[in-house]
Structures are given as C-alpha cells and as structure tokens.
Amino acid sequence: MAEDNKPQAAPPPKPAGPPPPPPPKNPGLVTATIDGREVVAKPGTSVIEAARSLGITIPYYCYHKRLSVAANCRMCLVEMSNAPMGKLMPACQMPLAEGVVVKTDTPRVKDQQRATLEFLLLSHPVDCAICDQAGECKLQDYYQTYDAQPSRLDIPKVKKAKRVWLGPLVTLDQERCILCTRCVRFMREVAKEPQLGVAERGTDSFIETFPGQPLDSKYAGNVVDICPVGALTSTDFRFRGRVWFMSSARSICTGCSRGCNTFLDYLSDTSYRYRPRENDAVNQEWMCDDGRLSYKPLNRDRVLSARVGRSQGEKAGEVVPRQAAVARAAQLLSEQARAGRLALLLSPSVSLEDALVTLAVAREGLSLVEAYLGGRPDGWQDQFLKRADENPNRRGLELAAQGMGLTLRPFADLLEAVGAGEVRALWAVGTELPSEGEAVRLAGLTVVAQATNDGPLARAAEVLLPASPHAESDGTFVNFEGRAQRFEMAYFPRGDSRPHWSLAGELGRALGVSQLHASAREAFAALGPRLGAALGDFRWDSLPSVGKRPGLVPLAAGTVDGRLPGYRERVPSEGSEDQRRALARLPQGGRP
Amino acid sequence: MSKAVIAALLERFPDAVTDAYEGVGGDDCAFVAKERIVEVCRHLREVERFDLAPYITAVDYLGMEPRFEVVYNLVSIPRSARVRLRVKVPEGDGCSVPSVTGVWRGADWFERYCYDMYGIRFSGHPDLRRLFMYDEFVGHPLRKDYPLRGRQPLVPERQVDENLRGPGPATRD
Amino acid sequence: MTAPAHSPPAPSAQENDAPLPVKRMVVNLGPSHPAMHGVTRAVVELEGETIRAMKLDIGFLHRGFEKSCETVTWGQCFPYTDRLNYVSSIMNNVGFALAVEKLCRLEVPERARYLRVVTSELHRICDHLTLVGAMAMELGAGTVFFFAIEGRDLIWDRLTELCGARLTSNYARIGGVSRDLPEGWADKTLRTLDRVAELCEEIHGLLTRNRIFLDRTRGTGRVPRQDAIELGFTGPCLRASGEAYDVRKAFPYLVYDRLDFDIPVGANGDNFDRYLMRMEEMRQSDRIVRQCFQQMQPGEIIVQDFRYALPPKPLVYGTIEGVMAHFKLVMEGIKVPAGEAYSYTEAANGELGFYLVSDGGGRPYKLGLRAPGWPMLAALPFMTKDALLADLIPTFDSINMIGGEVEQ
Model-level pTM? Predict the structure, then answer.
C-alpha cells in the first residue's frame, strides 16, 4: 500500500520524431507485401515491376520500362500503406519500401481504374472500325477488363485533327491520343532527337512537332509501336490490313548486320510489316525505320519462275519448269568448272544454311576453292543500332567458308579476274551487288543466278533460278558480333521459288553431290558441325518465344498452333495448303 | 448431400481419393488414383447407390504432366446427388485406365469414344475400338496436337466379306 | 379307310415345329435405309427372321463438333449447338448457355429464364411429335405423320417469328436470350398449342388403340428398369422403364421449380410405353408453356453486362464504350474464368450435358458433349437381341436417335 503512495519516477523522455524504421527483413533488399504476398526486390524497384514479378498485373498506359516515369495516365494507382493521407499512389512511380503493404484489387482501386478509363474515353472517337490499332489497343483491353460500363457522356466530344503528317513514317490522329507522352519521352531519351512535344493545355493539348522540324528521325517508327492507342500510326501500314487476321513469324531484320529481332506480320503469302521483338542483347525493343521498311522486297519485284536464256531488252528469257532450269544450270556449271573458268559469287544476305549447302556443293561438285563476296553496298550508320554493312549475314558467310575450307575473296578481286579473262562464268547465289553499275562488267559472263528479286544480274543470267527470301524458309543469320540468330518461316515459298539451300541441293544432285536436304534444319544438322565452336552455345531449335503480340491474346499454353482468336485460315494462292507444305518439304519440287 | 459422399470416399479410400474440392456451382469433385478407379466406382455404385454414369469423357491438357484426364460424371437417382471423379492419365505406355464397363454397362461407348478421340486405352474393356472414326484413321482427332485441318488420304474400299467392321467379336456391341 | 400307300405319312407335330436348318445371314440395314432415319448402319446377323447378333456402325454424321468448338469463341459455338439435335435446337442452345453461365457464375434475368423454358418446351413438343410421326409412318401409318408434321410446323412457324429460323432456331445467348417476344406472340402460340393438342388427340385416336400398332410396339424392345439404369438411359426411355428420373425435377434449373407439371412413368419399358411417354410429355409441356405465359413479367431479357452480352446497337454505333465491347466480344470472345464444370439439362431425349474446360481465354479449351441419345443407341443391340427383324424398326424409332447429336 505504501508503495502506491510513493511518487513515481519520471518516465524516460520520449524520443523526438517518428520511431526508427525496423531493420530490413532481408539486408540489402526491400521486403514488402503486395496483395497479401511477400515480395523481395532490389531497392528502387517500382511497385509495378515488383507486382509483375509476382504475376500480379497492374494496368498502365504511360509507363514503359525503358523510358522515364511520367505517371500521368493514373491507370496504375494502388493502395499503399505508406501513402500520405491514405491517397492512392501511382505504382509505376513509387519505389517499393520496406514493410509496405500494397493492395491492387480493392474496391477503391477498381473504382479508380473505372473512373480513369471513363475519363480517357470521354473524348475518344468511335473509331475502332477504322483504326489500325484495333486488336492490339490497350484502351480496348483495359476497357473490357477494368471498366465494361456504358458511356454516360451526353455532350459533344472534343474535335481535333484526324490526320497530321508528323514525318515520313508517322501520321498522328490527335483525337485518339491519350497524352501519355510515351512518344515524347522516347524521342528524347532513346532516339536522343527530341522532335516531339505536347502543345496547348487541358483538353486542347496535343502531340506536335516543332515548327519546321518534322519527325524525321531514323527511329521515328518506334513511336508507333509504343503508342498504346491508335494515335500514332505507321503511314506505311495504315489501312492496309487488320491485325487480328495476321499471323506473326519470329524473324530477323535483314536491313543491316545488327540483326534486330523482329516479328514479321503476314497474311496469306504477303508480308505486311516488321515489328521489333524484344532482345536485350541486340536491339532492346527498337529498330530503325530503314529496317522497318526492309520487308518490301519480300513482296515486290520477286523472281517467281525459272528462266533459261538471257533477257534481251524487253524480252525476258523463256520460262521453264525449275527442274529443267536446274538441269541446264548444272550442265553449264560443270562445263565451265572443268574449264577452270567458273567463279562463285555469294551474297552475304543469304542465310547460314544457304551458304553452307552452296559452299559444300561448290567444293564437292565443282571443285571450287574460293568464292567471291557480293552483297549490298555499305550505307549509313550510327552509334545506336544501324550498322554500315547492310548485309545481315557477312559474319555467317565467313564462318561457313572457313568451315568448308574455301577462301572468301572481295568483290573487287572478281572484277579483276573478269577483266583479266580468268573468269568466264559466274554462279551467283543472291544477286545483290556492291554497286549496280558493276553488273555491266559481269554481263559478258555466262551467269547462273539464284535470285529472290529482279535486278541487273538476274536479267543478265543465262539460267535464272527463283529463290525464296528469309520469310519463306527457316534459317540462321550471324550478326556482326558473331551472334547466331534463328528466324522462322512465315509462309511457304511463293511461286516456283525455293530457298537457296534447296536450289543448291538440287544443283548438287545434278552434279552428283548428295547435299539435298529436306529442311533447313536438316541442312544445319548435316553441315553445322563443320563450323566447329564458332557459334558458341547456339542451338538451332532455340527460338525465344518472348514478346507476344499485345492486345488480342494468343491461345493459352497448350495450344499448338498458337493462333490468335479471330484468325482465319490462310488461303493459299495455289493448290491446297497440304500440297504446298509437301512441296516445301521436297526440294526437287516434283512428285515424291 | 454429395459432400457426405466425398467425405465418405476420402475416409474409405484415403490413398486413392485425393484433392476433393467443390467445383463451380457446387459440384462435388475429387481426384482418384488411376489404378483404383474401378474399386472406387464399385463402392460408389453398391454402397452409395450411384447407379447412373451419364457421362464419361476425357481432356487433353497438353503440356501438363500427366497429360490426359478422364472425367466420370456420376448420378445417384435415389439420393438425387452427383459427383465428378477425375483421373489423371499419363502419356505413353501408361496411357491406359481400368475400364468401368463392369460397373456400369453404359460406360461402354463413352470409353470407346475416349479411346477414339484421345487414344486413352481402357484395360478390361470388352470391345475397345474406334467409335466415330474409321479404323484406318491415323491419330486421335481431339488431341490438342492434332491439326484442325488435318486431312487423311481416302481409304480403299473394303472387301464385301469384311462388312462386320473392326476387331471386336460380331456378337457384341 | 387307310391312307393310300403311295402318299407319305403325315408329319408329326414335332416334325412340324422343327426349325428349318437355316444359314445365318448378315444383312446391312443402312446407312441409308428408308426405315433408318439418320445415317446409321446396323449390321444384323439373322437366323431366319430373328436377330441373333447386331453391330452398329456410326460416325457417318461425325463432323468434329467438339474440335470445331474448341477453335471458335464461346459465342460462336451457338450455331454448332443448333445442329446437334436439329429438331429441338433451342434446347441445345439453352443447355450450352447454362453451362457457360455456370462457369461464369452469371445470374440470368428472370424473364430470360421464362423465355428459355417456353422455347425449350415448345421444342420438346416438336421433338416428340417428330418421333411419334416418324414411328407411325415407319410402321405404315402415313396419316399420323402428316398430323404430327402439321403440329410441328405450326410450332416452328411460331419459333420462326421469334428468332428468324425455322429449323436451326438460335435463341439463347450467354446471359439471356437474343430477343423479346413479338407483339401478340403469346396469344398466337396459345392458339397453336390448342391446335397441336387437337392434333395429338387425333394421333392418340389413330394409334393408341390401333391393333397393328399395338401388336408391333407392345412387348417389343423391352428394357427392364434395372437394365435401363445400368445402360445409362435418361429421359423418356428411362422413365418408360419405370424410373421416375427427370433432371427438371431432380436438379431443377431455370424456373422449373416454380412450375406445376408431372413426370409420366411407364411400367414395361417397351416401345409402346416409350410412345405413351412422349404423348403424355407433350401434354405436360403444353401445361408448362401456359403457366409460363401466366407467370412471366416484363423485364430484361439478357444481362446488362458488356463483358458477356453484346451492347445494344445504338451504343455500338454511337459510343466508343459500346464499339469496344462489341469488338472485344466478337473478335476475342467472352472471357470465361478458368475452370471446369459439367452442366446438365433435360432435353427431349434425356440428359443433355456439356462438360466445359476454360483456360480463361476467349475460346473453350474443351467442350464435351453428352448427347442424350447416346446410351440408348448403344443399347440397341441389347434391346433387339433375339427379336424379329421387324421389331428393330419400332425400337429404333422409339429411342429417337438423332444423328446430329449422337454422332457430333
């Protein structure tokens, strides 16, 4: 009792300020909770990235992992326990903090997402039916997932310009723009050519170039890809096709020796566009405009039938079945080779498999020990992606020649040999020449050409064999760093054409060499070992499957063909698909 | 009602019946070990009075291990109850399930159907052959790796004396 | 007086009954035979006129229903379901819609549920009329066929007014039905039902006490109750064998629990009972439709949710929200939550089941169809064992095998 009356000792003074933060659960890392699940991340990781690592999707428009954070679309707002006054916080901007509890699916968050979408759609035109982005549009995706409410708008929508020419490759529809400024940030931060900005304020604001300075950067095409809506459209692709009918093949850009990874979008046997495919080691997820347009020769000026006899003026050579042309070519080649007057001209734009089979036939069937390098002339280059060498496979050709024991000699040496009269006949695999004018000097030769596209050398050929470009065959390109990259066949060879490896195999058979392979894969399996360890740990079947088409989701795992919803069966231009598939498998093209 | 059935099954066959769950709409489901399915089904029919097996089908979960699943939808008329049993079936040599035709005669065609469409064999089935497709057909069309437009060559006309089709005895069907 | 010596002795009674030594004969009935509706081939091994063995060869109408459905969006499956049981297509529509709704956990507006019951029961009458007409015709009573077809076409006319198609009527949608009743349709339908009831009475008068019909159907194709259950029978065939099992009563769906109707049950499980079962079920369906018209209230006919139902056309053409929802639903399909479910309804011939597996995408991962007629057709060899060949015809008729659904 007495103790109760004793005056109590003064309590220890409270420390000023907030209590010290608890020690981190994982030293050096940040541990937090998202939707009840614990996540451990490096300090500085944004909430949106941490959530993604858990498989939790937070919607966003303006955020892009390779661009700076703008946090202006307000789509990624989430509840965070450390938010001031309990406000919703943008997940793209907020770094994960120790012990923070994040909730992404509370009614408040969902309500906010719905409200954001309603605002974004307020003045959006009713354009899906004519919009090129329909089918891969984030507004459509998120509307269906997070909103799905009817419109409450009863006043007219804001009108803006529908087609603004920004530059050679980009056309802007201002009404569709949601002002996420991804394009502005891309031009400033990645392309390093700040050519875009936001003009005016409020509902009047729009994306604009500076007066007298069009959007003419060589990387301008990427703003079309990163635009989450249909505002920035590719002038080249605009109104040419609906994306949900198209299929994508994982391909490689052939515009330069960088070998940017791409998707080749095609319908039936027509290529429509390239889109960059993500590969951190090569092109991140960008590509240059010249590469973007390099799909055009796949459709245009193609050589689709075999011809025998030189074209003279308007009169082209006689169209013959490919088998007959191959027989004629083999006869010519072996005659000239026996006389020691034959040279092989190999273009560095053919694939590694093409080069391997061609060199093997040249070595074994024609006893050639050297080959001359053709290929397109050098172009512009920069410090980012574009290389001066505009041929995708020069390195692959060097490796193949080394592996097959042939010497590669530059094109100038060929001209010298022709001038000296040592070379009277030419076997051209790929007809690209370092300069078009030189074709005149080669015109006097007896030329057997395997060409994908029409050109001076193709026209000068005594025997012209139709070759398939990379869209119509599987294969490998080796880029300037020595990185072997696979590309896959988009559609079956057009017309009577066949890939170079198949044509060379047919020639080889006529010359008594067994290099006839059923597929590029088999060709690589047979001849690839001769390359030794030059390709490192490259495996032929290792095509990465990253970077699926945004928007319409492909069939879930377990579906073999991976076709998109709404995809229609391809309509082959000749014969049945089965027939063409069988033809593609049979290099001789005849009946089995 | 059928909750009790599943509970009783779990108790009676602790090592054969696993992962019981309540499916969408309150269906009562459980996974059953492949080797024990006949035993479980016989118990269900004789003790729990699940006298009707209205539907047996299969699913191809390509890319998952094991790949196939046979699904038994069962009804008890006197108890007005339903259960669904799922049996996981691996691909390859083990792609075979004991047949429940001995428990419910009506399972006959359903199992033939699963064999025809998915290539799942049913050991102990009296007459296991294709149901819809013809005998010369190669492959199993409902497998996910069978192409949608897979075409097969026309088969030559059969001889007249082969009019009783298939390997099964003529007295059965 | 003795028999003349040159005439042979009269055969004894034993000799008279001795069967002639006959060779077993294999006869193909079908695939295209006037008395085998549908394209089914029955290989029958005959001893005299007695069926000793029988094999069924089906699949002539197999068109890859399940494979086709796995490659189209959920909504695009509806036209395929129309062609399952093409005599009562709306029932298949409704069965499929209920299955998807079960997976989506979707509540359908009440009026839509009534409309689904009304159209289903009308189609049940169609189905039963077809069966009775075809059965009578194949037993030689052509008049009955014309009466039945008149009734059926009257109902089909009503359904044409409702959904635009006479045979492959497509009415149900995920989340409701495609359109509301036209003006005056209910009264018109009631008059149609009166006429159909009259026609049924005519058929009843022509068949039920008809000596030929009785002789050919009574006691033939008999399936005892226990066998029927073991063989997996459902629907009228099971009830004809004496088991009062009907999904509408055992596991009520839509609004069947609010309606007053009876489940007829047979005693012998023979062809005649299966015929009677159909006649009585038509009366019960008539009752159900009349009750529905009385109970039905105006209201929504489809869920007002853009994630499942197409927006109204003015919204599609006039607002971005509508056009986006329309685009996503048509091009990508309804996003059905990942999972699996088995949904069952009582179709005209028995339990119509759909086993669905969804991977969360816009298309079914697996769509398994439990066709009502399947077990009955499978049991045909059992039903006709040691019967006369002529009994095969009424038996085949009374199980009402529909190639579209059985052979998928």
Answer: 0.80
